[in-house]
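Many introductory courses stop at the sequence. We go one step further.
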Amino acid sequence: QVQLVESGGGLVQPGGSLRLSCAASRSILRIPAMGWYRQAPGQQRELVAASHSTGNTRYADSVKGRFTVSRDVAKNTMYLQMNNLKPEDTAVYYCTAISESIDYWGQGTQVTVSA
């Protein structure tokens, strides 16, 4: 079992940056897949970025070149560095991990991009 806790959300102006953190309750070294999803009001949850234990990463087209996902296995933490934020990035961001065919989710952290 894995508990996930997100942090780092907040209010930022367009063009600004935020770094989200996802702290796991156990080692993430061998968790095959972790990722970040987001859900804006009235919209479906969408995949933003995925991180695999192989080192491979994947991004939604809308965030390519602006967002970077990474893992710090020593801290059992996954990060999402978000640069050049746009109003359309406003959403609740969720961390997820897939371990032994079970999906685990964090509680979410709000990101609001507004002038």
